[in-house]
Design brief:
single chain, 320 residues, alpha/beta, Quinone Oxidoreductase, Chain A, domain 1, Rossmann fold, seven-stranded mixed β-sheet, six-stranded parallel β-sheet, 15 strands, 28% strand, globular
Length: 320
């Protein structure tokens, strides 16, 4: 164990399931890395829609006691557990450990399997790196593992300017896709700068009638977006639902039309994180951070995120 590590740490806990006001700061015992795990000093923690959805209802119920939200981590390895050879003390790493089980990213330290992390992209600071893991891995796994995207195919990304969407646009472009996004008109210039080929202002135009011959739809919005997105897919196309498990009726409706539809849950992925870091190094992926707040203002970060109007990601600075 590294010298100078205190036995306790600052963290944010959910005192109940409900609104942002249930989040409170607390002093908790610092975790210990077990076999195959590393202890990471958290410099920054990304904020995702999954965080506030879990906080509101308890989500899948995969919480420790006390519940500490957050999955996105960028920080420094402080100690390695038995058998770890991938990292050593002082290495800078980023990752999405344990998802969907509790990672406890809203804290000064996280202990998790070493292979749930990868080396932090050297060109990024911890704030920017913390904006990447969950959403970039979700986009990669949805596009390439689930939808089996090929160069030249057409991809529709809903809520394209958001924390997930703006990275999904770039990852799809890096995969050789023609990318269409739904977003308010004031965000179109931002998205074109990221590589979007065509954009639909969903407040003025109906994507279901204005878009056609799409191979892959990424739906992080939910509601009626899933059923309506079936109308834009060409035969053999795939709708990947990311907001919530797809309606059971959606799969047979899609299958009857020669389409695939379903819900995907992202998984920790060392190789995927390394591929994301490579895209960053090549200048093909750029996280955009719209707001940085201290750990003590986690509740405010959730309030901002739940407006659904932010551009890019919200990040908590932990080493204030």
């Amino acid at each position: 164990m590294s010298r100078g590590i205190t036995p306790t740490m600052r963290a944010v806990v959910a005192t109940a399931w409900g609104g942002p006001d249930v989040l409170r700061e607390a002093d908790l015992p610092r975790p210990e890395p077990g076999p195959g795990e590393v202890l990471v000093r958290v410099h920054a923690a990304g904020v995702n829609a999954a965080d506030w959805k879990q906080r509101a209802t308890g989500g899948l119920g995969l919480w420790d006691d006390p519940p500490v939200p957050g999955w996105d981590v960028s920080g420094t390895v402080e100690a390695a557990g038995m058998g770890v050879t991938l990292f050593r003390e002082g290495d800078e790493v980023f990752g999405m450990p344990r998802f969907p089980h509790q990672a406890g990213a809203y804290a000064e330290y996280v202990a998790a399997p070493a292979r749930h992390f990868a080396a932090k992209p050297p060109g990024l600071g911890h704030i920017e790196a913390a904006a990447l893991p969950l959403v970039s891995l979700t986009a990669r796994q949805a596009l390439f593992d689930t939808a089996r995207l090929r160069p030249g195919q057409r991809v529709l990304v809903h809520a394209a300017a958001g924390g997930f969407g703006h990275l999904a646009v770039q990852i799809a472009k890096a995969g050789g896709a023609y990318v269409i996004g739904t977003a308010r008109e004031e965000k179109h210039a931002f998205l074109r700068d990221l590589g979007a080929d065509d954009l639909i202002d969903h407040t003025r135009r109906d994507f279901a009638t204005d878009v056609e011959d799409v191979d892959v739809v990424l739906d992080a919005v939910g509601g009626d977006y899933g059923p309506r997105s079936l109308d834009v897919l060409r035969p053999g196309g795939t709708l990947v639902s990311l907001a919530a498990p797809a309606d059971d009726a959606l799969r047979p409706r899609a299958a009857a039309r020669g389409l695939r539809a379903g819900f995907m849950l992202v998984e920790p992925d060392h190789a995927g994180l390394a591929a994301v870091a490579d895209l960053v190094a090549a200048g093909r992926l750029r996280p955009v951070v719209s707001a940085v707040l201290p750990l003590s203002r986690a509740a405010k970060a959730h309030e901002l995120g739940e407006t659904g109007r932010t551009t890019g990601k919200i990040v908590l600075s932990v080493t204030e």
